[in-house]
Amino acid sequence: MEKTEKKQHKYGLIGKDIEYSFSRNYFTHKFKDLGLTDCEYVNFDYQNIDEFKTTLENNSNIKGCNVTIPYKESVIPFLTSLDAKAKAIGAVNTIKFTANGLVGYNTDAYGFKKSIEPHLKKHHTKALILGTGGASKAVKYVLEELGITCTYVSRKAKENQFTYTDLDKNIIKINTVIINCTPLGTHPNITDKAALPYEYLGKEHLLFDLIYNPNKTAFLKAGETQGATISNGQHMLEYQAEESWRIWNS
């Protein structure tokens, strides 16, 4: 039987149904480029976040993890502490394993800010955030930091947010930035998109989709057809991944 080498430094992605994920390929290539033969990056694909306990018990060589949908909030009780930004956002997408325990960080905010700033214009003062999960919390944090008034849009009615049926011409015209933080449109369900009145979009709008696969989601295509500026989540992912790597090695 072929002998398998145990890597000294293990990193990974915590999520659900994540075989498609960007992170494993990204870091595997990064390790190769850096000549880090003692590092590996694996997927921790959980049906329930409680499975994280078993991972911790069986993997003493983990140095850091990324966290994706749907565990950016539910992973927090497993952590020893949060850095200030992660605490303010209320969501974690990066975990550093230290001698003093597991520390949670949020690099989504860093990645989102770096990737959306080049597209912002003076008239981009109000935004709609589609979805209310962990990623949307990082997006809201950044928009408020940039002085952009933002409102969540969800399927369920809740105080101080819109439902999709609330969205009319006036709301769409006023909110010239729209960010999709839902999984709608992710491969293989590439025809799915949020139920917006896309006919009211125009060249003054900026549509940003956190999804990167496909490169151009149905949401972005619909905005592009109306003349809107569009951007997917590829650069955001790359920025947040590099920030994760910096944190793990600092």
Account of the protein in words:
The chain is an alpha/beta fold and 250 residues long. The protein folds into two domains: 98 residues, Rossmann fold; 127 residues, 3-Layer(aba) Sandwich (Rossmann fold). Helix content is 30%, strand content 22%. The strands form two sheets. The chain has a six-stranded mixed beta sheet with strand order 2-1-3-5-6-4, with helices on both faces. A six-stranded parallel beta sheet has the order 9-8-7-10-11-12. Strand 1, helix 1 and strand 2 form a beta-alpha-beta unit. Helix 4 crosses helix 5 and helix 4 packs across helix 8. It is elongated.
SSE arrangement:
Elements: E1 9-15, H1 22-34, E2 39-45, H2 52-58, E3 62-67, E4 81-82, H3 84-89, E5 94-98, E6 101-105, H4 108-116, E7 126-130, H5 134-145, E8 149-154, E9 162-163, H6 169-174, E10 177-180, E11 206-209, H7 218-225, E12 229-231, H8 234-248
Parallel strand pairs: 1-2, 1-3, 4-6, 7-8, 7-10, 8-9, 10-11, 11-12
Antiparallel strand pairs: 3-5, 5-6
